[in-house]
Specification:
Elements lengths: L5 H9 L19 H15 L3 H14 L4 H13 L3 H14 L6 H12 L3 H13 L5 H20 L9 E2 L10 E7 L5 E8 L2 E10 L2 E2 L3 E2 L10 E5 L5 E7 L8 E9 L2 E2 L3 E2 L10 E6 L5 E6 L9 E6 L10 E2 L10 E6 L5 E6 L9 E6 L10 E2 L13 E3 L5 E6 L10 E6 L9 E10 L9 E6 L5 E6 L5 E7 L3 E7 L6 E6 L10 E7 L21 E2 L17 H13 L4 E7 L6 H22 L6 E5 L12 H7 L1 E7 L1
Parallel strand pairs: 23-29, 31-32
Antiparallel strand pairs: 1-22, 2-3, 3-4, 4-5, 4-6, 7-8, 8-9, 9-10, 9-11, 12-13, 13-14, 14-15, 16-17, 17-18, 18-19, 20-21, 21-22, 23-26, 24-25, 24-27, 27-28, 30-33, 31-33
Helix pairs in contact: 1-4, 2-3, 3-4, 4-5, 5-6, 6-7, 7-8, 9-10
């Protein structure tokens, strides 16, 4: 938080006439001797000429002649404050209040702010509360004082309880002496870092790749950079989409607009202005893409907001178009500046910069999390010394939540250029640990990459967590926050679907990423079947990894419905397909009991499809018990794989 120049405020508040109730206790400009009054006038002229040493010398003479000259004492304290000599400023304001505590209420404000600058937060709280009890002539000053009071109360506790903070330069191959490096944003897999480099007045986007644990020399993204400026960027978790800020371009909608570029097999596409839905005649900047690329957060001072700069968001529709942006509302946004959002891949933790929430002063860094109803909770300050009384800039966090990346111009000895730094995040302000699934989708017969739709469902809520499409190489990457179980489904027309299950509900640590190959089985185009005859030849089994039963029972759990409905849709859309449903168990228990259980479970799926309307002449079921294991029964993981339900297409 910045307060106006104290000398200017001094002139505003103390140039008029004041009560003479204390006239015998102190001297004012009206009652001062001619000698003292002349020195005081000379001091004010020197201040206007920025000759502060002369001003202080004149004030010393005035005070020597009239020791209780209140105007001279306050002007001298204000000069010391503006010169950042806060100890002498504090002494001056305290002296004035000792001489005449009721002279003017504003002196309590000046003293409280000075003590805040000196990190004497308990004293600052006491004196700012005294100021707020008195007469305040401007509503804006009351608002400013209330913000200082909130900050002082917070800082008094925070500075006594510092969080671990040991920032280190990110890499000698990225940071340079001749340019500013700012706004580092890593991809989800940690293999790439996108950042802005400014050399002179030229800003461009750069990318560094990590090899053998080391960041490599940053390279300009030539297909995005232009002779104009590009910066303040965000990259999607899969590294396929970049949204960035460009300002004052011909044809733009406002001073700064958001642009988007997609990565293809030929490189990054030519950036496109995101259009009038996202951009306005106002300032739009500091974008942050959600991990699935479906939500775009950004900062803007557009009309309709809560404060000066607010956080807004827009959602990407199935047709690729973005919805009209919505203000993120309170408690994220305040009446001041709330900006630089970063949405972690866990999908529920946002880090942002604000000068409107209680903090150390200036712009501090905060986090807020969404509750189960999708509402943002009261922001939490990241703590001291991550936050100081200076302006802290944007921050991004690694996938596992342990590393933070940020920009600073105060950590390099002897230089003031911006460099990139990293530090280990204290446990109390980390997001949920996140891993990811990365896959390549192929035709099972030909081995060629396929373009397919991908859906990830949260099995606890039954809600769609993410959906995307594979790229031209058949690849996709989706982040998986711990604390939930997920069902993955990959589909393509004329192919049998693929399902996978990721059980992360009880996980409290970062899991290794899931790297899988998805082979989709092409469906037969035609079947020549004699009347009343069901095909007998079986295809490769297709696992139903998201069909669940009660333990030791054939009763289907509700979480199975989405998978079973997909199987129903497959049969409904392909009326020429006949399938057999197979049930399997591990080797725990009696062999005969396992055989019965496996058959009953297969029949439960069979019955579900019958009730949905699939004719019984297209379906059959069979239980195999423990006779066809696909993994060793020596471990729980192996037994879990053997307890499975599958289907085969009959030819």
């Amino acid at each position: 938080m910045r307060v106006a120049n104290f000398f200017c405020l001094f002139l505003f508040f103390f140039s008029g006439c004041f009560s003479s109730a204390y006239a015998q206790e102190y001297t004012t400009t009206k009652t001062a001797s001619n000698k003292a009054s002349k020195q005081y006038s000379k001091a004010r002229q020197s201040v206007n000429a920025r000759e502060y040493d002369k001003a202080l010398a004149a004030l010393d003479k005035a005070i020597k002649d009239q020791p209780n000259y209140i105007n001279a004492i306050l002007l001298k304290a204000s000069i010391y404050y503006d010169q950042k000599v806060f100890d002498k400023a504090e002494n001056g304001f305290q002296q004035a209040l000792q001489i005449a505590p009721g002279y003017d209420n504003f002196v309590w404000f000046q003293l409280a702010v000075t003590q805040w600058k000196r990190k004497q937060f308990d004293d600052s709280v006491k004196n700012m509360e005294q100021f707020l009890k008195g007469d305040i002539r401007r509503a804006s000053l009351r608002t400013e004082a209330e913000q200082y009071l909130r900050n002082a109360k917070f800082a008094a506790i925070a500075i006594k309880n510092p969080v671990p903070f040991d920032p280190q330069p990110i890499s000698e191959f990225i940071n340079t002496n001749e340019a500013d490096e700012t706004l580092p944003v890593p991809t989800a897999d940690g293999s790439s870092l996108i950042y802005t480099r400014r050399l002179g007045r030229q800003e461009d986007l750069y990318i560094s790749l990590k090899k053998e644990g080391q960041w490599q020399k940053g390279q300009p993204i030539e297909s995005i950079n232009t002779p104009m400026n590009e910066g303040a960027q965000s990259i999607s978790a899969d590294g396929k989409t970049i949204v960035f800020t460009a300002c004052n371009r011909r044809g733009d909608f406002g001073s700064c607009d958001l642009y988007i570029s997609e990565k293809t097999e030929k490189g990054w596409t030519r950036p496109q202005n995101m259009g009038s839905t996202i951009n306005t005649p106002s300032w739009e900047s500091q974008p942050a893409l959600s991990s699935d690329g479906r939500i775009l957060y950004f900062a803007s001072d557009r009309t309709g907001g809560i404060g000066k700069r607010d956080i807004w968001y827009s959602q990407r529709q199935e047709n690729g178009k973005w919805t009209q942006p919505v203000n993120a509302g309170t408690p994220l946004n305040t009446g001041n500046n709330d900006q630089a959002p970063f949405i972690h891949p866990d999908g529920v933790t946002m880090y942002f910069m604000s000068d409107g929430h209680p903090g150390m002063g200036g712009s501090d860094l905060y986090l807020s999390t969404k509750n189960a109803q999708g509402q943002w909770q009261e922001p939490k300050n990241l703590g001291y010394p991550i936050n100081t009384d200076a302006n802290e800039g944007a921050i991004t966090i690694s996938l596992d939540g342990t590393q933070a990346y940020f920009t600073s111009d105060q950590l390099k000895s002897g230089q003031r250029d911006n460099d990139l730094y990293t530090f280990e995040m204290p446990p109390g302000i980390r997001p949920r640990p996140v891993t990811y699934v990365e896959a390549i989708v192929k035709d099972k017969v030909t081995g060629r990459p396929l373009s397919a739709s991908v859906e990830l469902t949260d099995l606890q809520t039954g809600q769609l967590f993410a959906n995307t499409f594979t790229d031209r190489q058949g690849r996709f990457l989706i982040c998986l926050p711990t604390g939930s179980n997920y069902a993955l489904n990959v589909e393509k027309r004329s192919y049998a679907f693929y399902s996978e299950n990721f059980a992360l509900e009880k996980s409290t640590k970062v899991e290794d990423p899931f790297l899988i190959e998805v082979n989709l089985l092409p469906l037969p185009k035609e079947l020549v079947v004699k009347e009343n005859e069901v095909p007998k030849e079986e295809s490769t089994p297709i696992l139903l990894k998201n069909v669940f039963f009660e333990t030791g029972s054939a009763k289907l759990l509700d979480a199975s419905q989405q998978e079973l409905n997909r199987l129903y849709s497959l049969l409904k859309d392909n009326p020429n397909i006949f399938i057999q449903i197979n049930g399997h168990t591990d080797d725990v228990g009696e062999e005969e009991d396992n055989l019965v259980l496996s058959e009953n479970r297969a029949k439960a799926v069979y019955d579900y499809l019958l009730k949905k309307g699939i004719k019984d002449d297209r379906l059959s079921f069979k239980g195999f018990g423990e006779t066809k294991p696909i993994a060793s029964n020596e471990s729980e993981e192996g037994r879990q794989q053997n307890r499975r339900t599958e289907f085969v297409i009959l030819k």
